[in-house]
Specification:
- With about 160 residues, the protein is an alpha+beta fold.
- It has a domain of about 100 residues.
- Strands 1, 2, 3, 4 and 5 form a five-stranded antiparallel sheet that branches.
- Strand 3 and strand 4 form a beta hairpin.
- The longest helix has 8 residues.
- The radius of gyration is 31 Å and the shape is elongated.
- It starts with a helix and ends in a 29-residue tail after the last helix.
- The relative contact order is 0.13.
Amino acid sequence: MLSLTACNPILRTHGYVATEAKPQAVNPETDTKASVLARLGNPSIKSTFDEDLDEDIWFYMNSVRQRYAYLRPKIEDRSITAITFDLDGQVTQVAEYGIEDGQYVDYVSRKTPTRGRELSVLEQIFGTIGRIPTDRLGGGNQDIPGGPGGPGGGR
């Protein structure tokens, strides 16, 4: 019985979940920012580009992830609805994107070299021998923290 429950996937929904009205039902001829906000609520993301543009875009995003036991989650479904408004707040375009429209982004894995040379573990451990300042080891400097002249010292 336990082995059968381990094979059932766990589905999780992330992002915007439409309760009554779907974002795809927005009509460019009749809807405005106020009607879209009243019907759908706040968008997942608003465009944050230059305010001099003659359009504003709201994105309603939703994704469903599937997970089996200890395996890495897999995105089962994704939908993004982009609603474009003009300067007067009138809907001009409604675009729908799915998981098939996504693109893989290849991150650059190069590293920036540091200046100097790399030290081995032994060079790091034994490299400080002979470099310890001897004037700080004795009682010559009374301002060493924890020493006789430092905080709490001599008490």
